[in-house]
Amino acid sequence: MNKQIENESNYSASKYRTPDGVPADIIIFTIASEERAGTKKSLPMRELQVMLIQRKRWPFEGKWALPGGFCDEFESMEDCARRELEEETGVRDVHMEYCNVYSAPGRDPRGWMISHSFVALVNEAKLKDRRAADDAADVRLFPVSAAQNMELAFDHNQVLEDALAHIRQKMLTTTIAKAFLPEEFTVSELYQVIQTVVPEFADQNFLRKITSTQSRKGIIEEVLGANGERKMSNRYSQRAAQLYRFTGYKPQLSLYS
Amino acid sequence: MNKQIENESNYSASKYRTPDGVPADIIIFTIASEERAGTKKSLPMRELQVMLIQRKRWPFEGKWALPGGFCDEFESMEDCARRELEEETGVRDVHMEYCNVYSAPGRDPRGWMISHSFVALVNEAKLKDRRAADDAADVRLFPVSAAQNMELAFDHNQVLEDALAHIRQKMLTTTIAKAFLPEEFTVSELYQVIQTVVPEFADQNFLRKITSTQSRKGIIEEVLGANGERKMSNRYSQRAAQLYRFTGYKPQLSLYS
DNA sequence: GAAATAGTGTCTATGAGACAGTATACG
DNA sequence: CGTATACTGTCTCATAGACACTATTTC
């Protein structure tokens, strides 16, 4: 295709070598929970998983890769990523954020490709229907630890590492845990989600700190029932636990104060 | 130019409409300090400034814009940004970080352009020589507050706002203040730098906190002279102040613990 | 001695960290 | 009655936040 750009001067972008494509790649994370065998009421095992697709074409035919696709002229990179995300998972209204750009020369054998990575955090509940519908062999969720040890297409191993570092940092400094939780959740669930993403995270007094310390009070709030009584859940425990929800309040972290 | 990509299949990127360019735009911040008139030894006035260039060509001829330029096939976006940065300012080895991508359709009248913004933090000392050399009328530092009120080319007002938000956040959560400071600095200088970037920042006990609280101890350290005595400076004060340097240690901030 | 910056003393309320103890309900 | 989760009590030490106070040097 020969590009002609009409404009008011003699400028023409077609004088220059231009990129062969600007793809978006999406790192779709979800947390899979599995009931522990034996006990009924107990906290589930949780595992961070990432969605990969198996390539059917050159290049990297047969290899697993992050889902993605090319941006077209009439959409933004973000639109493109959301479109791809919906095609791959069937879900909308999902937490997605821009992560990084990959532009090293030679990173894509098809030509000069500037790839943009987006991280999507999808609640497993939203993914369930879809998973049943087409359990295609070429689209699968892998435990992140497994994906890290696979040889992925392109520079996708690096993209995955960067994305992981990105969400680990965000998990601790923002309230993105919300994306992996139901609207109403218990403190243990929140704790588990954080630990699933950031395994090093540990805090004996977590419950007390998140609910009772002044500086953090306001991040989550107790859910109340119709009559003003506190709403509880005993999904995971004999003793019912208080349900909480995020408030939207986000304290500003600082090194210096 | 008609693109032909040789490869082992019948894939050809040239079948698709491709972008007309992938520019990098650089938001070059510096902190200008000015001695206060009258008093000799006193803390200078500091002001956050941003570098703009005046466009000579369509589009937006005559308007001020962020410096930037097109990426070529044999460099990464980061390389491109560093190249442009050096062309514009003559400096290397500067703190620069990737900020965001701008891809809204129609954002550039020349065609389909996916722009990548980089934030550079340049110490005014490094900029001084250059500024004297060519004080070109079409490249200037503006106070950020002035730039915000100008009508910049393209979507550069938005790019600037995003970059500002980016460095404000980073200023409080990382040690990028380092980029605006000499190797050895006083606590007051550090405090001033933070305040210049984040005007809301205020902390009566700053000195004590940064030097004496366990959780933060290790971010900066006292500079010692040859004989192990503490190195002081009285550049800004009658009473000499302890000099500090950054250690490289970066505590991990967390909402939850 | 006034001015300007640097730094310390001290008090109170809050929070971190650790560990033991109690509460609830199911099987 | 054991077990798994959900909390609460309590102790110690560190920190935040506020405000007054002292220290050093120059003009």
Automatic annotation (TrEMBL), chains A, B:
Keywords: Hydrolase. InterPro entries: Nudix_hydrolase, NUDIX_hydrolase-like_dom_sf, NUDIX_hydrolase_CS, NUDIX_hydrolase_dom, WH-like_DNA-bd_sf, WH_DNA-bd_sf, WHD_NrtR. Residues 19-164 form the Nudix hydrolase domain. CDD domains: NUDIX_NadM_like (cd18873). Transmembrane segments: none annotated. GO terms for molecular function: hydrolase activity. Pfam families: NUDIX, WHD_NrtR. Belongs to the Nudix hydrolase family. This is NUDIX hydrolase. It comes from Paenibacillus roseus.
